[in-house]
Amino acid sequence: MKITNTLIGVAIVLMLAIGAGLWMTRRKDEPITAGVLRNIAPEATLTTSSTHPGFLKSNAILDAAIPTGYTWGITGGWNDGTQGVFPDWIELTWPVSMAISNVTITSVASGADGSSSLGTSGESLYCLRDFSIMGWVNGGWQTVVNVAGNTKGVTTHAFNVLVTSKLRVTVTDSPLHDWSRIAQIQVTGREA
Description:
The chain is mainly beta. It has a single domain (35-191), classed as Jelly Rolls, CATH 2.60.120.260. It is built from 1 helix and 11 strands, in the order αβββββββββββ. The strands form 3 sheets. Strands 1, 2, 4, 7, 8, 9 and 11 form a 7-stranded antiparallel sheet that branches. A hairpin with a 5-residue loop joins strand 5 and strand 6. The chain is globular, with a radius of gyration of 23 Å. Keywords: Membrane, Transmembrane, Transmembrane helix.
């Protein structure tokens, strides 16, 4: 009798363990990283106000990492198509609402000789000078960050968690008052 009760107890524990395992198994169409805080920019679709005709790989600004051998305008980067005309904007759209808390924008750094390279946290003539970061909330754009007078090639902006399926960076001026340029955008968030 004691052995039978023990076997029944073991069988019940196994059935519960198997049932729990099946319940916790993820769906095939669910990303492994669902719910994990990460750079969600690569999961978005990019729309822009305009793009310079020479920039055929603007979507590369969403890549998780800037590739080795990066060449501004050839292997990636966004440059607006309306020189000296502002505002310009980029918009990231996700298929589901995301909880977003941080955005890092990498612009193009300027060398003393006028050359350009990947943005650094130092001074740059090719950065975004005046811009805002907005989320789509209740059918309208809600500003979460306003920047004026920036001169840095890389800027990071932390804010209270914003739940949205769209994020927009609107540029209203650049240091040379000519082009809006972004080499990469990283968005820290997770599914809402």
